[in-house]
Write a structure and sequence with these properties.
single chain, 193 residues, Rossmann fold, seven-stranded mixed sheet, 6 helices
């Protein structure tokens, strides 16, 4: 799979302003949201992993928000690992001690169902405090920008993912999931049911 994520892929979906799916500014806003919510909850964040970190914009912004945190970038792309020094591994097989915050954006759609199941189990093992997860679902196709999105993905329903996440996490909205049992108080109306 690493060969699919070559220089041309990243030029198109990450670098070229005319064709990229998200800008660095957008990823910085994501990081501000994640950091603000976790700081509001007073959740400890000393170790961060971004699995499928791409160019690392989100990871770097989170590193600035949590300046004392140790940050690890993990990528399946051999090209990006050579260019940026990320650790080369898949989300389904990456092994490390648990992290306070695990980020996984736009990765799971590239996996078949069996590998995605394994990846979600691994994310549950790796995320000791919070998981930020973003993935294109079939439910998103009505709002998806098809011109700037790589549609070469397996589209599953939102329910498919939530069924696998629910035993391990509480959905607190905005793509944030807190590990069960909760370490902090989150009112029930602040949760997504």
């Amino acid at each position: 799979m690493s060969a699919n994520f070559d220089q041309a892929y990243y030029e198109r979906f990450y670098i070229n302003p005319e064709t990229r799916a998200a800008s660095p500014a957008e990823q910085q806003r994501q990081a501000r949201f994640i950091a603000a919510y976790l700081k509001y909850l007073e959740l400890r964040v000393e170790r961060i992993a971004d699995i499928g970190c791409g160019l690392g914009h989100l990871l770097k912004a989170l590193g600035k928000a949590f300046p004392h945190a140790h940050c690890d970038g993990v990528e399946i792309s051999a090209y990006l690992c050579r260019e940026y020094g990320w650790e080369e591994a898949s989300v389904a097989e990456y092994e490390a001690d648990p992290y306070d915050l695990v980020i996984c954006t736009d990765v799971l759609g590239y996996l078949d169902n069996e590998t995605c199941d394994a990846a979600l189990s691994n994310l549950a093992r790796l995320a000791d405090g919070a998981l930020y997860l973003s993935v294109l679902t079939e439910d998103d196709m009505v709002i998806c920008d098809r011109e700037h999105t790589d549609l070469n993905q397996t589209l599953r329903s939102r329910a498919w993912y939530l069924e696998r996440l629910e035993p391990h996490f509480v959905n607190v909205g905005g793509g944030l999931f807190l590990k069960r049992p909760l370490q902090v108080a989150v009112w029930h109306l602040e949760r997504c049911l």
